[in-house]
Design brief:
Layout: H1 5-8, E1 16-17, H2 22-32, E2 36-40, E3 46-51, H3 52-59, H4 68-74, H5 79-82, E4 90-91, H6 96-106, E5 110-114, E6 120-125, H7 126-130, H8 137-151, E7 157-162, E8 165-174, H9 175-186, E9 193-196, E10 199-202, H10 207-210
Parallel strand pairs: 1-2, 4-5, 8-9, 8-10
Antiparallel strand pairs: 2-3, 5-6, 7-8
Helix pairs in contact: 3-4
Length: about 210
Amino acid sequence: MAVRVRDMMTTDVVCVQAGASMRTIALVLGRYAISAVPVVDDDRHVLGVVSEADLLHRLADGDGRASGADRTKRSAVTARRLMTAPAVTVAARTEIAEAARLMQEHRIRRLPVVSDTGELAGIVSRSDLVKVDTRPDSWVLHRVGRLLMVELDLPHVRAEVRDGIVTLTGRVRLRSSAVSVRRAVRSIEGILHVDDRIGFDADDLSPFALHAD
């Protein structure tokens, strides 16, 4: 089963409200040694995020060439005007691969996690996601073995694990079964790559097979 953001997130989230002063935000970031803090309303819906970079915009001297957004941040005295909005958030049920993609795409280190009804439910950071890649090979082998033997009932498919790389060997009846096994194994946390060497007796995915009598 794929690891989701809810499995890795921190639920004890430090946040501020829109009326928080710049001084309060700076104290919160320093006290909790974090680089950004979500801004929420009274119902804990995420309005935006204030980061160390946003504070730097406020402190930097203007040179006459700043954008409108930068000028707004430099004149801000509360989180409402200082924050970056709308915030990039992620649902708790999202798979971690998608969370990692969002972090990379938006060049951010932390993502507020929201519930199905939009309230702040947690926070997930880059370091949280990196932990998934530190599963020992023995743990991965045990998890893959259980998948093959118990969940999929495929005693003729075998797995070896080395440095997070899983090699699958053996034979199944249909090519579609081999594809399904590979996908199921790839969804297990801690696996960096799947080397699929599973053989099959019939190619039911071939266009010719689809038209066979």
